[in-house]
Amino acid sequence: DAIWNSFEQARFKEKHFQLIKEAGFNTVRINLHPFRYMDSTTFEIKDHWWKVLDWAVENALANDLMIILDMHEFHALADNPEGRKPMWLAFWKQVAAHFQNSSEDVLFELLNEPFGNLTDELWNQYLSEGLALVRETNPLRTVIIGPGNWNQISHLDNLVLPENDRNIIVTIHYYSPMRFTHQGAPWAGRTDSLGVKWNGTEEEKQAIIDDFDKARAWSKEHQRPLFLGEFGVYDKAEMDSRTRYLSFIVDTMEGLGWSWAYWQYDSDFIVYDIDSDHWIDPVLNALIH
Known about the structure:
This protein is 42% helix and 13% strand.
């Protein structure tokens, strides 16, 4: 959103916080891309960026919404983890200090979807350092951390968390089957892959149940709560399949007691059309029912 450059250019407005709450949601997850707004030498974050973030946090809390501050520079860290690590740590040192006296409804997500050169082993080292830095100023803040390889369920067993820190929620992301959820998506190399349906057959449902069972078993073994931090369907899929899939995902994970966030509010996995100023009702009703 251009709001990070100028409030006058913003697409996301103050009224959207109220709309989100009135629709039945109770959390907003804000994807933060701070590196371009940090001094290249000192890593100090620019003033306007802070003004936007404070505005977002204040409006979320005013509408009784929890807010997740999601560090979303995952591509930069995947490409060059060692080179970007100092900037990533500097970001969390500043953000943690800035919000140390904020409401407990402000949550920190250390990094979205570690992948690439940021291997599972390396990510375990980084998250340990990042978490320790946060704990210097926020000893009781709820922190969200996920496994490597795009926060996939299959990599939960590789995730190492400090046993004595219980103010951690573990996030997983779920887009299976990709041939359905990402059909038509150019960044996924699926531009020509259209017309894939999700009919809700017993076989299709069981595949999801089996995946979630693996996460449930890990959660029980490690006594860690789970947050399905992303799931969704690209808008090139037919609407009936999209809503059928989303409704099943929501019902299944809520039956397991998981919290969740949908990807995404506006744009291509859309649930709210900012330009036309209306909800995509079939998607909304599949999520909140």
